[in-house]
């Protein structure tokens, strides 16, 4: 007999405008078109989740995400949130190709579970590293003036690690970094190619940045996801640490990276794998001697709060790319963690400690 089973799931679309068009090598967005989800238990405790599909990366869009979450939802009804690992495994078996949809349901059920235990979500993972953490800030692909304008604005707010979206035009990429480098002292760069570079282009890019003295701390997914030999060659030829992002969408992908020594970091994203699988990959990567980065798609503070919970609870994350709520023109959530400049501050209330209102037109499963 389950004491406090899952009784109701609500799912609704949420559109949040992005302040400046989010342009990367593989696609662009002007609005985050996500789904919010709420799981409610028999005693009235509820938890929130978010699905943030990015079609060019994961192949999911909001329509397919909603259809998948609606199909998977009934499976959760009547279950105990304490069985979250088994439920996550079963969801993955049912819908392996819909990680964002699964991630939304998993997050909501984990949030409800932590709230029913009266502990913050991060405490569920062990409270390994509870402190304020600094995030990088993303500069999308845009012209020189806009790049400089955005970088100056973030710099004034305290940001020092700039994640530059690159990979469309090497010479222009080098010019963009050079312009920012000369304008702003004491900064570092992550170059995120989103699979857009050839090996040769990437090496030209690194040489170009080194020529003007730019501090390139990380190269993220410079080449297409299948080209693990390319990642391996780039890290050895340039000496710059490489992070595998699109190349790792499962534990097996992470194993391949380790076998081929193709990366220094794995970029963990709950939208690529679901929450519990992300934790498995993180634990495996660390045990294999790799370092951890954590990022997201274009997410609000709900999904990003779940990722921040992994950072605080699991520990071992060196590079945080948890900035997308700052790129949105509104924040549709109350409560939870908050930002001051580049710092994310932990919360101490149960679950994710967030609230958002559900419209009367939402999809209901009960
Ligand atoms: Mg990336």
Please describe what this structure looks like.
- The protein is built from 14 helices and 17 strands.
- The model has no long low-confidence stretch (mean pLDDT 96).
- It starts with 5 loop residues before the first strand and ends with a strand.
- It has helices at residues 55-58, 62-76, 84-94, 99-117, 121-125, 144-156, 170-183, 199-211, 228-238, 251-260, 270-273, 275-287, 301-314, 324-327; strands at 6-24, 27-41, 46-51, 133-134, 137-139, 161-165, 188-192, 216-220, 242-244, 265-268, 291-294, 317-320, 334-335, 338-340, 343-345, 354-355, 363-365.
- It folds into two domains: 6-118 and 358-365, Enolase-like, N-terminal domain (Enolase-like, domain 1, 2-Layer Sandwich), CATH 3.30.390.10; 124-354, Enolase-like C-terminal domain (TIM Barrel), CATH 3.20.20.
- The chain is globular, with a radius of gyration of 20 Å.
- An eight-stranded parallel β-sheet has the order 5-6-7-8-9-10-11-12, covered by helices on one side.
- With 366 residues, it is of the alpha/beta class.
- Helix 3 (84-94) runs antiparallel to helix 4 (99-117), helix 7 (170-183) packs parallel to helix 8 and helix 10 runs parallel beside helix 12.
- Strand 6, helix 7 (170-183) and strand 7 form a beta-alpha-beta unit.
- Residues 192, 194, 220-221, 245, 267 line the site of magnesium ion.
């Amino acid at each position: 007999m389950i004491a406090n089973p899952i009784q109701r799931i609500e799912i609704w679309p949420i559109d949040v405008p992005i302040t400046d068009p989010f342009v990367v090598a593989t696609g662009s967005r002007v609005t985050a078109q996500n789904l919010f989800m709420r799981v409610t238990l028999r005693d009235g405790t509820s938890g929130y989740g978010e699905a943030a599909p990015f079609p060019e990366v994961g192949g999911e869009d909001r329509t397919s995400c909603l259809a998948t979450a609606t199909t998977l939802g009934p499976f959760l009804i009547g279950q105990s949130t304490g069985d979250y690992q088994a439920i996550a495994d079963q969801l993955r078996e049912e819908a392996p190709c819909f990680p964002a949809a699964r991630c939304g349901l998993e997050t909501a059920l984990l949030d409800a579970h932590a709230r029913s235990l009266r502990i913050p979500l991060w405490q569920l993972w062990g409270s390994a590293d509870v402190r304020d953490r600094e995030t990088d800030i993303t500069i999308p692909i845009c012209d020189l003036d806009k790049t400089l304008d955005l970088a100056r604005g973030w710099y004034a707010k305290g940001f020092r690690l700039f994640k530059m979206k690159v990979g469309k035009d090497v010479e222009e990429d080098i010019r963009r970094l050079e312009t920012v480098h000369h304008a702003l002292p004491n900064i570092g760069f992550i170059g995120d190619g989103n699979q857009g570079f050839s090996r040769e282009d990437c090496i030209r890019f690194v040489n170009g940045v080194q020529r003007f003295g730019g501090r390139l701390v990380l190269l993220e997914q410079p080449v297409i996801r299948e080209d693990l030999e390319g990642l391996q060659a780039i890290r050895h030829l340039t000496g710059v640490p490489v992070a595998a992002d699109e190349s790792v969408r499962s534990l097996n992908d992470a194993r391949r990276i380790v076998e081929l020594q193709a990366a220094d970091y794995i970029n963990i994203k709950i939208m690529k794998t679901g929450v519990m699988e992300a934790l498995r990959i993180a634990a495996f990567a660390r045990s294999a001697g790799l370092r951890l980065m954590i990022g997201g798609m274009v997410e609000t503070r709900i999904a990003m709060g779940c990722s921040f919970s992994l950072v605080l609870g699991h520990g071992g994350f060196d590079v945080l790319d948890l900035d997308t709520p700052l790129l949105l023109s509104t924040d549709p959530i109350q409560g939870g963690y908050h930002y001051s400049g580049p710092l994310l501050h932990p919360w101490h209330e149960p679950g994710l400690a967030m609230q958002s209102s559900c419209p009367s037109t939402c999809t209901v499963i009960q």
